[in-house]
Design brief:
Elements lengths: L19 H11 L11 H12 L4 H10 L4 H10 L12 E6 L2 H5 L2 H11 L13 E6 L11 E3 L2 E4 L3 H12 L9 E2 L65 H13 L48
Parallel strand pairs: 1-2, 4-5
Antiparallel strand pairs: 1-3, 3-4
Helix pairs in contact: 2-3, 3-4, 6-7
């Protein structure tokens, strides 16, 4: 990269300050960064200073350094490193940046440079006689498919010929730059191919048979019994509804016991689980055939023979 220096002293203004609108914008921009990181706003502030005065002056660098609490040399390093910052006065109506990278060079950028030398000044970064126009050669501007192209301030003008560039320069010189069409200068939509499309021009309906409704064959389905997969299968005697417990139906329970002793079985089961024995206080049913509770006979005391002492 070539050495970039600030403009000579005779071009430097005495001081710099943001106007009212830009001062409010600068404060809002600085507040976007966390505490202690406000110096990250140096590039946006330098760009806004250039948009205000047209180029970056020494006093602007000093003002931004003080505003961000940075050393002057640190801000100067940023301003001289990035070629987007203009360190000398440029044209007040147009500063033309001609792309000279390989795609544009192959498409005629050298002829565009000759136009700038003829219409503005022989040397780049020099003003014309009235101070309204200037030009420079730059690296790739990112529109290689539309080469050759130039950028004027923030707008791109592509697919240029020397004659069309002369017309653009004359229009800007007359102060009517806003009337110039930006983008491609030929019959092209943005970066689309030149001319009318030559491929995929037929209206072809894609064949997608998988999306079309298919006829369904009508068949008589066989009857299928309901599945019992989700139903519990329990053949334990305790689940037999025909069996009765001694607590709920003592008589029926006794009949079940008799049937089981004879080996006849029940209508649904072949075995009957023996009832658990235990005391009434423990909550278990009483043993079959044994009186329990109020059904037990009361004991009577035999009278003692006369004359027998107790």
């Amino acid at each position: 990269m070539s050495v970039r220096r600030l403009a000579e002293e005779q071009f430097q203004p005495a001081n710099f300050s943001f106007n009212e609108e830009n001062a409010v914008w600068a404060e809002a921009t600085i507040r976007k960064y966390p505490e202690g990181r406000q110096q990250s706003a140096v590039i946006p502030l330098l760009m806004r200073a250039q948009e205000q005065d047209g180029w970056v002056t020494r006093s602007a660098i000093e003002h931004i350094a003080a505003k961000l609490d940075m050393a002057y040399i640190r801000v100067l390093e940023v301003a001289t490193f990035y070629t987007q910052f203009q360190l000398k006065p440029i044209g007040t109506r147009a500063h033309i940046q001609v792309c000279g990278t390989t795609p544009c060079m192959l498409r005629g950028s050298e002829d565009l440079i000759k136009v700038c030398q003829k219409k503005i000044h022989h040397d780049p970064l020099h003003l014309n006689a009235t101070g309204t126009l200037s030009w420079e050669e730059v690296e790739c501007q990112g529109a290689c498919v539309n080469a050759p192209m130039v950028i004027i301030f923030k707008d791109a003008y592509e697919d240029l010929t020397p004659e069309r560039l002369e017309e653009i320069i004359d229009t800007f010189e007359a102060g009517k730059g806003s009337e110039v069409k930006t983008g491609p200068q030929i019959d092209r939509h943005e970066s689309a191919p030149i001319g009318a499309p030559i491929t995929l021009v037929d209206d072809i309906k894609p064949v997608r048979t998988n999306l079309e409704p298919q006829p369904q064959a009508v068949t008589e389905g066989a009857s299928v019994p309901p599945a019992n997969a989700g139903r519990p299968k329990d053949t334990a005697p305790e689940t037999d509804k025909s069996l009765k417990t001694p607590v709920t139906a003592p008589k029926a329970a006794a009949e079940n016991v008799k049937v089981a002793e004879k080996g006849e079985g029940s209508p649904t089961t072949t075995e009957t689980a023996p009832a658990a024995t235990g005391s009434k206080a423990e909550g278990a049913p009483a043993e079959l055939g044994v009186p329990s509770g109020e059904t037990k006979p009361k004991r009577s005391r035999k009278p003692k023979p006369e004359g027998e002492s107790s």
